[in-house]
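cron nightly-structures :: item 1 of 1
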Amino acid sequence: MESPYRGTFNIEGFRFGEGEKTVAIVGAMRGDEIQQQYICARLVAKLTELEQRDCIEEGKSILVIPSCNPFSMNVSKRFWAMDGTDINRMFPGYDKGETTQRIAAALFEHIKDFKYGLQLASFYMSGDFVPHVRMLTTGYEDVKTACLFGLPFVTKRKPLPFDTTLLNYNWQIWGAKAFSIYAGQTNHVEHETSNQTIDAILRFMKKISIVKYRPQKAGYESIVFDEAELVNVKAQRAGIFYRMANVGDRVNEGETLAQILDPYDSSVIQQVKSPVDGTVFFMHNRPLTLEYSILFRIQKND
């Protein structure tokens, strides 16, 4: 796509193997998804190595697209820099529509016929997650296959009306087995969760007979739950957020997860406590918090 301000807008993909369109992996769609692009870039390097060693199964092909929105990343904007629209809310796209609709249409044309679709996604709230696989419950979701990644959690969520324009939703409607993978942070590189996510994706492709690969770890027996079951812990006061727990921690009811401090004298104005026994699934990661913001989401023990 031609641009009046910069060079031609191109989306670059890397194809490995030959034959059946088997797995498409899509990275950063938003300008702050650094972690997502980094994971895809490392996957490109690893798959190049596996292909050179003849470790991609015959008749299978893999497509990796590290970034769909380099313009926004260049200017440090989360959404499309010109009008603030979100490419991931434009699927299946419209080739005669607005800019982000045309980008979505061009992208979807290339990836809609793959058997499996993997998106390295980010959440609308800033924070840290336990690495997990997320699916929309369209009636076409495949929980059993999602567990093959070996990540700690597999979550399901009933789509709202505006979710019908997401890539995950449209991939499923067009017949792909679609999975969104959430890998810790978003706007900076985190090596431990990056390694865990890369290993999970390659483990998945080994289990469905696409690559020959020995995972670094055996992986988890994934816990499957509906996101509506998560327990939200909110700030009752605004102030400095001083965390005392981390994602993945097992916590007990009444345990202090964080403190909110007065920004002028550092006195504690709220002890943030866990309302249940469970695992910290999500955690706010900014140094300040506003009143009623979600600070933690707890996966409650059965």
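cron nightly-structures :: done
The first helix runs from residue 34 to 52.
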